[in-house]
Amino acid sequence: MMIERLFFSDLSKEIRGKALMCVLWCSLFAFLFPLSAYASSVRLKSYRMSDGTVHTFKTRSAGARRVLPRTRKDWDSERIYKAPVILMSYSDRDFLPEHDLQFYKDMLGKKGFNPGCGQGCVADYFRDQSLGKFNLEFDVVSVKTTYGCKITTNSAIREAIIKAAEYFDYSDSDYDWDGNGEADVVIVIFAGYGGNQIDDLSVGCYWPETDYIYINDLPVEAYSCSNEIWVNDASIGIGTLCHELSHILGLPDLYPKMGDDFSVVDEWDLMDGGCFSGDGWCPPNFSIQERELLGWATAETLEASQYIADMPVYDGSAKAYKIVNPSNPNECYYIENRQWEGWDYMLPGHGMLITHVNYSSSAWRSNIVNGDTSNRRYDYLHADGITFNEYYEYYNDVVASSYGEDGRNLRLRTTAYPYTNDEGVESTIPSLFGTTITDLTENDRLLSFRFRDAADGISTVSSDAEPVAYFDIQGRRISEPGKGMFIVKYSNGITKKIIR
Ligand SMILES: [Zn+2]
Hints:
The protein is α+β, with helices and mostly antiparallel strands.
């Protein structure tokens, strides 16, 4: 079964116990951002009200730990993956008049529909993340449950799914994505607030979650639910829906599930605080690691020393590199050029994002990726390299948290060491499995950097290794080496400088 009872990471600007920063490497700035609230299992979420004030409410995390579905890669870009959707009103709580059937049909499936700063509807989001491989359509109906909105079990959802059998044929093969004879997911959007918003208004309300369900005689495998509105009565947008639906695809949460700890990647990822970006209307792109798990895109492995010029923006291209640990194929660093474009428009910062991943299929499927704070399996490299406690002092003394005028959470945005400034001072990133990245620059949103192989210039070449690529001394790939000094990459992965 899967999971989740909460995901809110702390986005508050006022209340902060401690904050952890992670990193974005950038030529002009290194942005720091806190990864979450601290202390107790209560977290905080802030968003701007229509009058410009910032409203903060608490959220909670829970320790549900169930098994996520196995991720699959056999998507058919010719197929329409359909899902039944139930708009569930309670006996004592209806949807706001503006959130009618048409509003949800648009939010789910109308191309380009997005009243916020995102790129479109839920189907658009997944089409973009999958680079066209995962195309969704939704059948939407309204159902009224006999239960009230203050409820702690899934009885209302269960009843709504049964009632909706009047409209849906759950055995429709269009709903059965994996061919096991059951609808993979029934999406439920319930009226009112989510219980994860700890506010007087939302106390006792149900929480957004995704879970398996068994209903006698109904071929339904799981449901994914989210609520209608923030406590300011604005729609919560598409982020939470996308987050929950991603659990159906097998993606885990990236915030710690154990209660007391910090969020880890926060608004940089849909599976952490990113489901709230742009007040829920502009969730960030799936990371390349998430896309690799789903077979939607692949990072190019860096091996030979080379200079990489003008690495394209990640949004739209899904271009990424990875550096794999030579002694552990499950551990690697991913490199992305994340910019304020497209679905990444609301990212806290921009520049080179380096993610350290220590993959374990059991940790991913058990949804405990970052459960162990001494062994985070998915985290960013921190540009300043300092520990959380060190940063906490600095944060309290110096850094004012803030939301930018455009609504981005820019809290903790500051320069840090090492970084490259306007004068072109070089930035050097710590050793990544013995390799290095230097000479990082960002120019008109494109990143350039030099990658140095661990073996560069120092290894000997075994007698049976064949040359497979040549590079000039600046690291640019060349086809045929002439006279002079150049670099050869051999079939055994070793590179060597050669003078001819
Ligand atoms: Zn989740």
